[in-house]
Design goal:
alpha/beta, binds adenosine-5'-triphosphate, 41% helix, binds magnesium ion, 10-stranded mixed β-sheet, 18 strands
């Protein structure tokens, strides 16, 4: 077997230069067969130990039946082992969620690791340029653990030394296509390690009906929809200002109405006042009765209402000065939420210069000084460019619904948000699929989260307004 080795052939290769008599003969060093055998045996052993270490359960599942078969024959082994699958089936039927948590998702994660990620890891890394092929060897980022959640695979990766998160963020499409997923998101878990998220299906594909109103009055955070991981999407409105950007039909109305719906119990007991500015007359006019006299539609009315809000704010600031630094809503000093739909109609697209100046000044004053005295602004607009909304940076919290251009995503969510997976320009323009879907940045994480707002239909709004007028809960 070891008689004719490649080296034996190489030793006989002789080359000479054409015009001299110099002869080149390759030097062949013979490796004793025992060393080769020891190296191969060592590699086999290391591979075995690594497999047992990495997949202990899979090894037990394969090894135990084999050993029992070998020791007692297959009939006895079958008899001894049959309670195990029967028990698992009973567990799956009786406690679906605990079975999924302890067995189902782990089994799926193992399968996805072996069949999808490990199998395609080398080609995807090399073709996408995240791995290197140097001197005949592959240098690949290390594939770590795969965890399955009900909607996505979370894959941990150790980057190659010298790589940055941006290198990966630039290749999200390569990764998604390479591993057969619709999209991919990247997040830094700790120095040198990443978590890649590959959704297996879209949990936000279905329209979410209007959420039930909170049982007790609350000023927030208000539940207005669902996050991609199934958690409720809570929007903080008290102590901040929120800007919602989205192209026409993106579902800005559903965010405004879900927020109003969540605050309504607090409005009823007087802890919150909602002041509505509806220059397009198409959104807030539906629930006019909810706002009483604090509703404005024409630019003049809107300017007056905003000036009134500024005056409330300034009076409060004068009273609070030196006494308290933050606002707690009370019946005497309720939280005032100024809701402005299509704010650009009042600022950038307003032809009357004086009105435009008044409105812009009032909005800038509210957004710079209102937070600590309990005056918040929730504004919606279609075009987030600076020329249209020059005070966009005065809103600490922003929501990007469907946008027309990729550059607009970073304008709304901040630099690098699109690279980290906030593909707001890829949201479907079909209302059933994409309306109300958007990306937000939560306080706890720099990575954008995909969310969908609940849809408050016209009938829901009418029911809310009627019930409010009658003084009952809707
Ligand atoms: N959260 C949602 N879930 C499902 N569908 C929605 C949602 N929000 C809105 N829609 C659908 O999308 C349509 C447009 O929504 P909406 O009027 O809120 O958009 P918009 O962003 O305010 O648009 P515009 O800027 O033109 O006013 C609605 O008529 C509704 O059918
Ligand atoms: Mg609208």
């Amino acid at each position: 077997m070891f008689r004719r080795l490649p080296g034996d052939e190489a030793r006989n290769l002789v080359s000479t230069t054409p015009d001299t008599a110099v002869v080149f003969r390759p030097a062949v060093v013979k490796t004793p067969a025992i060393i080769t055998i020891v190296i191969l045996a060592w590699r086999l052993l290391a591979g075995l130990v690594r497999t047992i270490w990495r997949h202990p359960i899979a090894v037990v599942v394969l090894a135990v039946p084999s050993v029992l078969c070998w020791l007692y024959g297959w009939q006895t082994a079958l008899l001894l082992l049959s309670p195990a699958p029967a028990g698992l089936i009973a567990w799956a039927l009786a406690g679906r969620s605990s079975f999924a948590r302890w067995v189902g998702w782990r089994l799926l994660a193992w399968w996805r690791l072996v069949w999808v990620y490990r199998r395609h890891w080398q080609p995807v890394m090399i073709v996408s340029g995240l791995g290197r092929h140097l001197w005949g060897r592959d240098y690949l980022p290390r594939l770590g653990k795969v965890t399955c959640t009900p909607w996505a695979d979370l894959v941990t990766v150790r980057m190659l030394k010298g790589q940055s998160v941006k290198d990966w963020a630039d290749r999200l499409d390569h990764l998604a296509q390479g591993f057969g997923s619709a999209s991919c998101r990247v997040a830094l878990s700790r120095g040198g390690r990443l978590t890649l998220t590959f959704p297996r299906h879209d949990p936000l594909a279905e329209r979410i009906p209007a959420l039930p109103m909170p049982c007790s009055p609350t000023v927030g955070p208000v539940e207005i929809g669902k996050q991609e991981d199934g958690q409720p999407w809570l929007l903080k409105v008290h102590g901040t200002h929120v800007l919602v950007a989205g192209a026409t039909g993106a579902g800005k109305g559903s965010i405004i109405w879900s927020t109003i719906r969540g605050l309504l119990p607090a409005v009823r007991v007087g802890l919150v006042e909602i002041w509505a500015l509806d220059p397009k007359l198409m959104e807030l006019s539906y629930g006019r009765d909810l706002f009483g006299s604090r509703y404005a539609a024409t630019p003049e009315e809107c300017a007056d209402l905003l000036d009134q809000a500024v005056s409330v704010m300034q009076k409060r600031a004068a009273r609070f000065a030196g006494i308290q630094r933050s606002h707690t809503p009370t019946v005497d000093d309720p939280f005032v939420l100024v809701v402005v739909d299509e704010v650009a109609f009042l600022t950038a697209y307003q032809s009357d210069r004086e009105l435009k100046r008044r409105i812009s000044a009032a909005l800038a004053t509210l957004t710079t000084q209102g937070r600590a005295v309990g005056v918040g602004v929730l504004a919606a607009l279609q075009d987030p460019r600076k020329e249209v909304m020059n005070i966009r940076n005065l809103f600490p919290d922003k929501i990007a619904l469907r946008l027309d251009e990729s550059e607009q995503v970073d304008m709304v969510l901040g630099d690098g948000a699109r690279d980290r997976g906030a593909l707001a320009d890829h949201i479907s323009p079909v209302p059933g699929l994409g309306a109300g879907v958007g990306y937000v940045r939560l306080e706890t994480s720099p990575d954008p989260i995909r969310v969908r707002a609940a849809y408050v239909s016209d009938a829901d709004i009418r029911a809310m307004a009627d019930a409010f007028a009658a003084g009952e809960d809707a």
